[in-house]
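Recap from last week: sequence in, structure out.
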Amino acid sequence: MPDPHRIFLKGTDNDFIVFVDEPEMWEKYKKDPSIDLVDFVSVFQVFVTSKGSLGDLDTASEAELANEFGSADVNKAIAHILKNGEDRNTVDVRNKELK
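Predicted structure tokens:
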């Protein structure tokens, strides 16, 4: 299985990342948001970094999600990032511990 793609969104104070396993499905989702996220999202977490798409990752807190997306709901934040983010290509997450 290929490495997941990093979907990156530049935020106001932090940058946000969601990982997808199927970039083709992500492209389809942007045109048809009725596609189920479980079909292509790697992990249902939003990661935050202050150093761009290649910086160290931490799990975004509820406060960070609420400040950026107006809600602490992870699923809403993921949907927003998927609709508005950009693919920063593949990243090998298996060799890194994600917090």
